[in-house]
Amino acid sequence: MAKKAKSSADRPVSGMQVYWSTVRYVGFILICAVILSTIFLLLCNDMFSFVKADANFTIVITEQNDTAAAVAGDLKTNGIINNPLFFRFYAFLTGDRKLSTGTFELSSSMGYEAILLKIGKKNAPRETVDVTVPEGYTQKEIFALLEEKGVCSAADLHKSVVEDTFSYSFLEGKTPSETWLEGYLFPDTYTFYVDDTPKRVIKKFLANFSNKMTTTLRQQAQSLGLTLEEVIIVASMVEEEARVDEDRKVIASVIYNRLESADFAHLQIDATVLYALGEHKDKLSDADLKTNSPYNTYVVEGLPKGPISNPGLNSIYAALYPATSQYYYYVARPDGSHYFAKTSSQHQANIKKAQAEFDAKLTPAA
Question: Which residues make up the CATH 3.30.1490.480 domain(s) of the chain?
Fold first, then answer.
């Protein structure tokens, strides 16, 4: 019987074959390594700008070309970068795909990071605006002012008041509502970002209030037997009623005197009616005074439901350190000051004097 021929798989592999196979494999690996190293070095050179031909380019970025993808080709054409695809990938990884609008001077000596630091929107300094909030502004007025200044929309601020969490000791025990921060948005001059976030804006007001209400002031409230909320309510009424600083503490004394007297069930502060109405009026009607609102002190007994404005330090001090008086009444004069009275008859006489002063002011000189 003839012997079966051996297949090639059965033949022994010679040492020379193993040698050349190894050489080919190692050579392939080396070639791949050289190619990859070359690509890596080229990309690194482009990214870090180690060795590049000198080139300068003035780029104009508008809303139509404000992405890294849109300008990469122009940067390549003008010699600033060599690899637009890698530039776009780098911008994607660093979150700098969106660019600032404007005119920028670029150079080939700048690496990717330097380029994006200059034209990237992520690293561009944010525009700020200074906003002065007057004492006595309501929450609604403050938010309207912030919208006017470009800080953020009033609607978003009102939404944040209700939906966001604000953790401050002076808010403990208060139930979040549309007006629960009224009185605590401290009037001052602030620097905000344009298009800021509502919560950050509100926290700036609250943090300022917290800093202004020192331990001494909080202890003074306790010594008066008042909560901080009650002090701010009184201060907000003083803020709205007083027009000259000298009257603030006296008006505060009138409020406290009425609260402590059994003869006065109602404070009858006109400013609380205006807050309940949500509008400004030169003169209140009888119907206005009967407005059904927890803020209307012609209807509710004692203090209104909450502050009716955001008072400044002078009014807060007046509420904490009121004058000692026996006054229960006051009436405004044309110069903004007030006449004060102990009795109803004295008050009626003061009303007549104040009215005569107003009439004289309105009467043209002969």
Answer: 56-119
